[in-house]
Amino acid sequence: MQNRYPRPVNATLGVLLLVLTALSSPVFASQDTSGEQKVFRFNISPNGYPPYLIGDQSQPSGIMWDVVSEVAQRLGYRVIAEQIPRKRVDQMLLNGYIDATPRAREWADAPEKFLFTDAVVDIEEVFFVPAQSSFYYESPDDLISKTIVTHLGYRYPLLEPYFEEGRIRRFDVSRDKDMFTFVLHGDRFDAAVADRLVGKWILRNEGLRQHFDISNESISNYGFRLMLRKDWQSFASQFNEELAKMKATQHFTQHADEYKRIFRQYVTRRLRCKPSAVKFQPLSESLKRIRGAVLFDASDHYGWTDGVLIRICSGMPMGFDQLVGTLIHEELHCFCKARGRFLSSDAEHHCMHVLGED
Predict the structure, then answer these.
(1) Please, what is the Cα angle at 22 between 21 and 24, to 5 degrees?
(2) Using CA atoms, how far apart are residues 70 and 132, in angstroms rounded to an integer?
(3) Mean pLDDT value across the chain
(4) Least confident interval from 11-15, 55-59, 100-104, 297-301
(5) Whole-number Å distance between alpha carbons of 162 and 141
(6) Degrees (nearest 5) of the Cα angle 163, 165, 167?
(7) pTM to 2 decimals?
(8) In the β-sheet with 303-305, what is the strand arrangement from edge to edge?
């Protein structure tokens, strides 16, 4: 079945984590199936980056760690956590001491030297200020003459020209949680800049949430990815494929009830069927089919399904969001039956149109 150009599908962290434990089916058919388990050395940094990386080297956790561990295991790798300071990471990655580190492409000093996967999660950097502060932010010009507490070694592309010219002062600290201590107890600091989720996690765990306000406007929205050496292209491609299946599974789980509602309306109103004639595949079967999707050699359409297996066309140029959308579209073709038969493409397209996902 030919698939239309799908619209981007956003990830929700909570559901993404819930589906991780269920992803146990084979990876796309393009994977090397030698069966040999290899080692994947993944930097979690000495202090971690909670809740994305919570590190204890012997038993790390967090959103990024969980995703990387699950995908790497499916690709035949055993993940080993390494704790490398930020200033040494890039060179140790290039030298082969580690295989990957989490990084937004925009944060890299020399991104052209490295290879980046698709985004696992999105990072939104905002300002944290003392409660009831008169601090106001809409653009960098609002920060002129102010002192911002920043993380040592981190880059803030929007603010860098202001830092370099001295119009905004930065004060570096090495640990995320210390940023909030300096802002709260130091008279000369106006705000701390941190990822929204990271800041909320720290404030909640330190019992400081009521002492801070958070800016509505952000200074960045970046994809948090794996940064690898350029000779890891095969791994990056397979990682992206597995990540797409995770996110498609997550999205389908979130919207399954809406799909059912729309299909019921379509069948009863347009096909004039009785409600009792409408049957849905068990959600577990749909998720299994998405997870079991395979690549096949074709270049005339995005994907195809026979109701048993989803096939994704390897010959079509397809970005990450397109791949996620194609997996969802193809599964919708076999999610609903009326009078014992799968619905036509028109029904699936109608469902996606109603949800604004076409």
Answers:
(1) 100
(2) 43
(3) 85
(4) 11-15
(5) 9
(6) 70
(7) 0.79
(8) 294-296, 310-313, 303-305
